[in-house]
Amino acid sequence: MKKYSIEVLEVLSRIVEVDALYKEDAIEQVRQKYRKCEIVLDDSDYKMTEFSVKDEKSE
Fold first, then answer.
1. Which of 4, 5, 9, 49 would bridge with 54, disulfide CB 3.0–4.6 Å?
2. Contact 5/39 with Cβ under 8 angstroms?
3. Distance (Å, rounded) from C-alpha 12 to C-alpha 40?
4. Are 31 and 24 in contact (CB under 8 A)?
5. Beta pairing partners, 56
6. The pTM is what?
7. Contact between 9 and 52 (Cβ < 8 Å)
């Protein structure tokens, strides 16, 4: 029998609108809000789940 390491990857995604002069500034605004927990993704932001084999070990 083999032992498998399986990665479970969940993707959450949300569109956040901000006003800024440049896209870099807009990204930084959202990054700061995310770091301060002003933006918290939850199950309503769910997009997909993937499963993949990361390692096979013989026993």
1. 5
2. no
3. 10
4. no
5. 4
6. 0.75
7. yes
- Report the phi/psi class of residue 35: left, alpha or beta, with left for phi > 0 and alpha for psi in -120 to 50: alpha
In whole angstroms, give the CA distance from residue 22 to residue 31.
Answer: 14
Q: Where do runs of H (alpha helix) occur along the chain?
A: 23-35
Q: Please, are residues 42 and 10 in contact by the beta-carbon 8 Å criterion?
A: no
Average pLDDT of adjacent 10-residue blocks, the chain of 59 residues: 94 98 98 98 98 80
Torsion angles phi and psi, residue 49, rounded to 5: -130, 140
CA dihedral of residues 19, 33, 43, 11 (deg, nearest 10): 80
Q: Which of 31-45 are b and which e, b meaning 16 or more Cβ less than 10 Å from the residue's Cβ?
A: eeeeeeeeeeeeeee
